[in-house]
Amino acid sequence: MTPLPPVHRRALLLAAPALACLLIAACHDRADAPLPARASATRAANPATPPARPKDELETTASHVIGISYPPGLERYPALATEAQRYASQARQQLLDAAKQRPPSAQDGPYELSLEFKLDHESPEMVVLAVDGSAYTGGAHGTPLIQRWVWLPPQNRRLTVADLFPQPASWQRIAGEVRAQLRSELELRLDADNATPAERAAATKSAAPMIEGGTEPDPGDFAVFEPVLDGGGKITALRFVFPPYQMGSYADGMRTVELPAARLVQDVAPAYRPLFAITG
């Protein structure tokens, strides 16, 4: 992975000419008034090096295949790029550890890691970075790897759902609305499949505890989210993303539920309400 820009080394390089001028002036007992102009000229001749884009990775061996790609422009947010690289590094290490522990008799193909990072939104107030991928370490299928980062450039930090909704009572309402939508979606699928009453009862009995277990009224169950934005970059809804296994089988795939801003903004912390199209 590409390291962060060598800020300290640049600072030393920029300071060296000014320091030399000061020493010469002291030796010749001359005034130091011209020094700021010299320092300015030096800085103009040595502009700051822009941060480097994180490097894509492609590694192919007999035991594993790793492919990681980063989007152009991510280097504009060095701290966010560091978060993305840390996520990729952890996934990479987990795959390599699994490959080392792989039984010699295993008949599966090479273990695989695939991660594709994308900048879904960029504005002065907010940046949204998404990664979708998978890790295969044997078995019938891989493990989906899904994450979202909502970044606030003015504060140079990540915005979490716990920041947005700090009150426990808010999560009772959010969990209740998400569960209601998921149950409604289940009913629509059963209608589309022309399920018999017995099939409907069995499916509902099976899905209910998984929905409940995957949507506890806690920020941890809603940590992966992405804003739905209007043309001006304001949030009109929040889309909660639930990876496979959180509330169903692999075959159920990734699930998403959108809640409109009008039903959320009353619970949003006041500091973040200006990000929403409806401020309450």
TrEMBL record:
Gene3D superfamilies: Fervidobacterium nodosum Rt17-B1 like (3.30.565.40), Heat-shock cognate protein, ATPase (3.90.640.20). Residues 38-57 are annotated as: Disordered. Residues 38-47 have a biased composition (Low complexity). The keyword Membrane does not apply. It comes from the Bacteria. Residues 1-20 form the signal peptide. The keyword Methyltransferase does not apply. Keywords: Signal. PROSITE patterns: TAT (PS51318). This is DUF4163 domain-containing protein. It comes from Cognatilysobacter lacus.
